[in-house]
From TrEMBL:
Name listed for the protein in its UniProt record: ABC superfamily ATP binding cassette transporter, ABC protein
Lineage: Bacteria, Bacillati, Bacillota, Bacilli, Lactobacillales
GO molecular function annotation: ABC-type amino acid transporter activity; ATP binding; ATP hydrolysis activity
Sequence similarity: Belongs to the ABC transporter superfamily.
CDD domains on file: ABC_HisP_GlnQ
Residue ranges constituting the ABC transporter domain according to the UniProt record: 6-241
Amino acid sequence: MAEKVLQVAHLEKSYRKKHVLHDINFSVEQGEVVTLLGPSGSGKSTLIRCLNGLEPYQKGTITFEGKKIVPTEKNWQKIRQKIGMVFQSYDLFPNLTVMDNILLGPTKVQKQDRTTARSEAETLLKSVDLADYANVYPRELSGGQKQRVAIVRALALHPDFMLFDEVTASLDPEMVRGVLTIIENLANQENMTMIVVTHEMNFAKQIADRVLFLQDGRILEQTPSEKFFTNPQTDRAKVFLDSMDF
Ligand SMILES: Nc1ncnc2c1ncn2[C@@H]1O[C@H](COP(=O)(O)OP(=O)(O)OP(=O)(O)O)[C@@H](O)[C@H]1O
């Protein structure tokens, strides 16, 4: 059986009195691509943020590579470096060049050798068609280019696992394909383990091994991708898919 990289058991999350995630249970295997789908407000971003320690949770456990992760504990920062995350907003530092944005984490946080890190960053930039952009500032980039830099910045930390939260949601339509292709290549060529939140249904269908369908903070379905898109098990998922343009 494939190794389980991430295991989530009985996770409960509230924002003050608002209970947002209810008894979330799932695991992700090495090399698996899981897409998290569900209507707006169903809790997708909250779940992703809990996995990356950006949100505290009240009950349950998250185990990553065999270690329980508790954001308040000291070992968390080290574990977290193994989990790369890219958001809808690119969050690049405006006063740093593309290269310095990428090198900040590897050199300052991980103490990687600067020359090696730079050479790796150049290779990564080339792989996303941005070889000539190392010395420009984020304001000189299009949205799609910024998002590709954000992906490179996450990869430069050598993650074992990637979380993508609606990374194309704020891009112009012609920029979307380039970013999705990079994620597809990561999955197919690098065999990266990942969880992807997306509203791009064709992309989800193409990339996902498995779909987790969330509704009102509960996982209604955990279904292999081909089955989910052709024969969803719940009426709610059928309605959701019918409302999507794909
Ligand atoms: N910081 C917060 N404080 C209070 N409530 C929040 C907060 N963030 C999210 N929520 C609530 O939690 C629920 C889940 O929100 P979340 O953003 O996780 O959903 P989502 O599925 O990612 O939605 P979308 O697809 O629109 O991004 C919603 O009811 C939302 O209003």
